[in-house]
Amino acid sequence: MDSPAGPRVLVIVPAWNEEACIADTIAEIRATNPSVDVLVVDDGSADQTAARAREAGARVAILPFNVGVGGAMRTGFRYALRNGYDVAAQIDADGQHDPRFLPQLVAELETSDVVIGARFAHKGDTYVARGPRRWAMVLLAAVLSAVAGTRLTDATSGYRVAGRRAIHIFAEHYPAEYLGDTVESLVIAVRLGCKITQVPVDMRVRAGGTPSQSPIRAAIYLFRAVVALFLALVRRWPADFEQGLAEALRKAA
To answer: Which member of 8, 43, 53, 218 has the greatest number of CB atoms within 10 A?
Structure first.
């Protein structure tokens, strides 16, 4: 990651009211991965998130109102595509994603198009999810594993990297709906011919800010994600990557 001959990596940090921890998150990304560029997409924050991000040295894109993680990430993928990046990585602003794992995820792109930083993938993982939320996560992982043709333990992880083929696809088709940015985006990638794999990572607790979802609401939304998953499976998408790319270029012209 610190080699000048390595891929150009853009770390996209979607952020909504994260002024308490955005500077520390950016500082840790830059300290552990000095060759990457960092783009913070301020998703309509009402606090000083954008200002704190600029002060920390990140590039900042400001959305005029809150559109959700999917809309913020689509903005980041379009920035990555237009500026010729080889890799687009998502790291959340709240400090849960440890950027020391980023080189391992990027290395896996040599043989894959999308790499997930996955919980529940190794013994000794300390991340805990219980009850309906955990059941939904297990169901989603099982279905996505069957769709992708590989074992995935954490389909809802937002810690992931995308290579150039996936950047092309996500710049046009990344879902804006809640959890569409995780589950539905994987279905889209698979149906357009992308290879998906995972790398075990350790997730941390939030370093600051306020979670956008309570545990009960998170469970409800996860069940909604199950419905969204099956809708994504039956929805019409471009037949293959080349068709998807052609449609994206036609719309951009």
So the answer is: 53
Distance of CA 82 to the CA centre of its chain: 18
Res 11: pLDDT: 98
pLDDT tens digits for range 73-119: 999 999 999 999 999 999 999 989 999 999 999 999 999 999 999 98
How far CA 96 is from CA of 22, 30, 53, 115, in Å, comes to 12, 16, 17, 17
Cβ atoms of 202 and 98 within 8 Å: the answer is: yes
d(CA 213, CA 5): 41
As a dihedral over the C-alpha atoms of residue 163, residue 167, residue 169, residue 175, rounded to 10 degrees, the angle is 120
Closest by Cα among 186, 187, 172 to 80? 172
Cβ atoms of 35 and 1 within 8 Å: the answer is: yes
Question: What residues contact 194, with CB distance under 8 A and at least 6 apart?
Answer: 112, 113, 114, 165, 166, 169, 241
Sequence-ordered list of residues with C-beta below 8 angstroms from that of 51, at least 6 positions apart, any chain: 19
For 114-146, how does the pLDDT look when each residue is reduced to its tens digit (9 = 90+)? Answer: 999 998 767 666 666 666 667 777 888 888 899
Q: How many helices (H) and strands (E) does the chain have?
A: 9, 7
**Residue 36, by phi and psi: left (phi above 0), alpha (psi -120 to 50) or beta?**
beta
Environment class of residue 64 by beta-carbon count within 10 Å: exposed (0-12), middle (13-18) or buried (19+)? exposed
What's the rounded Cα separation, in Å, for the pair 159 and 99? 9
Question: Which residues lie across from 97 on neighbouring strands?
Answer: 203
Token couple for 129? 């999810």
